[in-house]
Amino acid sequence: MIKIEASTLEDAYAKATLELECSVAQLRYEVIQYPSSGIFGFFKKNAIIVAECVDKPLDVAMSVAVQKVPQNDAIKADTKVSHRHSHDKLEPVQVKSNLQTPSVPLVQKTKHIVNEGLAQQDKRVLDSFFEEKHLPDPEQISKNNQVLAEEIELQLKELFAHSCFAIDTIEVDVVDHTALIFIDGDDAALLIGKEGYRYNALSYMIFNWLHAKYNLHIKLEIAQFLTSQQKMIWSYIQPVIEQVKMHGKGKTRALDGILVQIALEQLRAEFPEKYVAIKTAKDGQKFVVINEFNSQSHG
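User: That's the sequence. What structure does it adopt?
Assistant: Structure tokens below.
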């Protein structure tokens, strides 16, 4: 059994077949780590599998093929063996055989049957593999997400049970590798903090926990803070959007914490064909730039 690492599962399977010198039909594997594109280029993960080659079916297929080929009188054997004992000594065995070497056309016919059978089997397996791409069952994904959401929700409730904040509502849902977290209560405003500084810290902490443990991204909503921030940023970036439409490029002012992430998401949705990214100024402040892909370096 070997360990294979590649950027995608398909590349890992192909690499395993090359190293093990077997076909996909003979490959038995287990996915140790699914690939992840990460977030904003960070935390990217490769696919990792362990694989082995099961018993090669060549010998079995050869024997079946030979049985299907009409027998020739030339390969029928008549073997006679006799043993004679004398004074407790075994005399040499005398073997008489009429076995002859199969003719060349027969060997070629047998090889053709075997190769054609294996080729069709491999083709069926490969077609199935690349068409389905080993996609999990949607119903199973939904069940797994529900179990994961319940587990995360339980741990968050335990965390806030030991805090000084009066929080009575914690709900978690998992969709598309993202944990959607809603928190509310009498102390929701205190949990957000002035200008959202506590919100940013909590969001950063939860993201690092869930991404490291479950490979999940997060969207954290405390009361209506995230929704209000999204509306506020959408109003703010309207002049920026108009500027980009007129001149082909533009940028936001410096934004703090979650605001720069919200602006990034909204501007990428508005300009999917353009280069939209977060830049950091010399003083450490962050802003979003929008321009053409071939002028990224001029942001």
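The chain is about 45% helix and 20% strand.
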